[in-house]
Design goal:
396 residues, alpha+beta, 15 strands, globular
Length: 396
């Protein structure tokens, strides 16, 4: 039997900086757009390009998550303006990144590796009848952008996952990159041909898989400021081995962070200057990239949080869509919101102590104004002894 010699392990790169936990937290806040004056001139599109992606989700309580992301960074930008900034003039497309995400159109070439992987996929959960794929492509070419319903129906008469041939075909074409989601209309995906929706200079899949992953690792590192392998790889749902293969050439630099206990990498630009400026005070969507990964949130903020929308109601601790409250660069509480007419209802407010009361009250008032409410009602406060203080702060 022939023995294949093992490759000698490469020595770990020497860290270029040792960061305190506070320094790492402030770097992360600045990288995510929560420290320093917001760039209002770049607006919503600037937020999207800076983050590299904005996650979509079906839940809408205060507002949908993709609206909450720019609101948290810019303040009360008009909700209609948010949608227009994403979708008008071909500035963005929807694809699979961290999850279903809005992505700046210039990132189209970076996902060529994923489109190729989908094309090479050996099996699918949905069977596709002969001719269905070509029929959908021909229909889009002849009729222009369409939802699945407009193409002939999104599902059969069974359960919600019982997709029609049309839906299966157009979703497969989306994964392959022949079709693009160009907007959401009434929360339905609107599909168009990539040859029409993506600018010609971006449309060619010229980058090999390694270069796609390398650029995505660099982009994720810049958006996070500093992170572990798991943090950075998870930003675009890359595998750990993909990260390992490219990190040395990504431009990110190795660092150590007090208390993390794991190797970390940072954007060298984030290390060049000390993070300074005003901290944002705001409610955060659970799908915000600042906090979407539980282990990172616990490591950076000492704050344990999970979305309880899919937890049975009797087992919920903080509420259906509890939104962490960011203030002074820390997570100081949670609010589970609802809307009743022109009243923003805080069904449950969880506070980390008396000092959390003023910023939570501020965040509630600002959010109420943003969504067109003129009053705030608090149903329950934990701990209950802080309820009078919160009521007084809201009335101030």
């Amino acid at each position: 039997m022939t023995t294949v010699p093992k490759t000698a392990p490469q020595p770990a790169p020497q860290p270029v900086a040792a960061l305190s936990a506070t320094e790492a937290r402030r770097i992360a806040l600045r990288a995510q757009g929560f420290l320093g004056a917001p760039d209002r001139r770049a607006g919503v599109r600037g937020v999207l390009r800076h983050l590299g992606q904005v996650q979509l989700d079906t839940i809408s309580v205060l507002a949908r998550s993709h609206e909450l992301i720019p609101y948290a960074r810019l303040g009360a930008v008009g909700r209609t303006a948010v949608e227009e900034a994403y979708w008008s003039e071909g500035h963005a497309f929807e694809y699979w990144s961290h999850a279903a995400c809005i992505l700046p159109v210039e990132e189209w070439p970076l996902f060529a590796f994923r489109r190729r992987a989908y094309r090479d996929r050996p099996q699918w959960h949905h069977e596709l009848s002969d001719g269905s794929y070509a029929k959908v492509i021909d229909q889009l070419r002849a009729e222009g952008p369409r939802t699945a319903t407009e193409l002939g129906g999104a599902k059969n008469k069974g359960e919600w996952w019982d997709w029609s041939d049309t839906k299966i075909a157009v979703e497969r074409a989306l994964m392959y990159g022949e079709v693009v989601v160009t907007e959401r209309r009434g929360w339905k995906r609107v599909y168009d041909l990539a040859e029409r929706a993506i600018p010609e200079p971006l449309r060619h899949d010229d980058l090999d898989d390694t270069e796609c992953v390398r650029r995505l690792v660099r982009q994720a590192g810049e958006a996070l400021g500093v992170g572990t392998r798991a943090d950075i790889a998870d930003y675009h749902r890359l595998r750990a081995e993909q990260f390992d293969a490219v990190v040395a050439e990504s431009g990110l630099v190795p660092v150590t962070v007090e208390g993390w206990g794991k190797p970390a990498w940072a954007d060298p630009a984030a290390l060049a200057t000390e993070p300074r400026g005003r901290h944002r005070t705001t409610l955060l969507s659970p799908f915000d990239s600042l906090i979407w990964e539980r282990a990172r949130t616990e490591r950076i903020f000492g704050f344990t949080h999970r979305l309880e929308a899919y937890v049975p109601k009797p087992k919920r601790v903080h509420g259906y869509f509890a939104m962490p409250v960011l203030a002074g660069g820390r997570l100081v509480g949670r609010v589970d919101p609802a809307r009743e007419g022109r009243t923003l209802v805080a069904k449950q407010v969880s506070l980390d102590g008396p000092k959390a009361v003023p910023p939570v009250a501020q965040a509630l008032r600002e959010a109420a104004t943003w969504v067109g409410c003129d009053t705030v009602r608090v149903d329950r406060v934990n701990p209950p002894e802080l309820a009078p203080l919160l009521t007084k702060a809201l009335d101030a």
